[in-house]
Amino acid sequence: MKFDVRKTAPFALFALFVFLFPLFGGKYGTFLMARIGILSLYAVAFNVLFGYGGLLSFGHALFFSGAAYGLGIALLVLDWPLWTGLLIGLLVTFLFALVAGFLSLRHKEIHFAMVTLALSMLFWGIVMKWRHVTGGEDGLAGISRGMSVRAFYYLSWTVIFVSMAVVYRILSSDFGLLLRGVRENDLRVLFSGHSVRRVRMIAFVFSALFTGVAGILWTLLDGAVTPAVSHWSFSAVPVIATLIGGPQSFAGPIVGTFVYVLAEDYITKYTMYWQIFLGLVILAIVLFFRGGIVGIVYDRILSRFVSGGEE
User: Taking the domains of the chain in order of start, what are their residue ranges?
Assistant: First the structure.
């Protein structure tokens, strides 16, 4: 793979900023940046299906909360060690992905989205009613991460960067090209001898697993897991972040997550109706900036530098 300084330099600078941030960001800022990183991974994993596969999932909270509750139950209910809990969380996500993929990938477009939403809300109902295992409305609290917030910040961002690098490498491979081909013209891919459903299933499981990684990091950061992460509204978070940043680029969901979380954190200091203002921002971006923030910046500014100044 050819090394291009112009493409890798922004990511290197971003990584440097992330790892220096605790030195000047304060305790709350460090906690907020860790949360942004986790939600960024959540959005990047979601965008494997949406931006690259052309499939809009309204149920990704199923995989996020599946891993979170798998970890929480293993640690607090079954009293298993941490590493076992991590494996259980990922195993739960993998099983959920197989079942959800088998049921939802038989459908397309809005029907696919509705099936994923229904499965996610089914799990939310189980979480709410199975109180002696999941804690019901109270959730599961008292999950120990065994380290300070700053130490976990570095650990979580290391996992996030490694996960994103793996996602980027796979999307840049022949499989990523095939997945984009399915998005653009699934019949042509089918006639070329590839199984469209198999490609989508692999992408679905792949997306779910990295969503599960985000769910595990979220649980360890908060020290608890609540039904809020299994509700349909939490499935909307990566959708909104991706639309803000831009679904047609790898960096789009990351940029969108920063904007979404920081806007929410800032606006909620002044009004409880922050959703109205954020909704107006999202509406403006969707209507007037179809490529999202990254798409607009790239088209108007960075494309000249990446192309070496060629017109």
Answer: 14-229
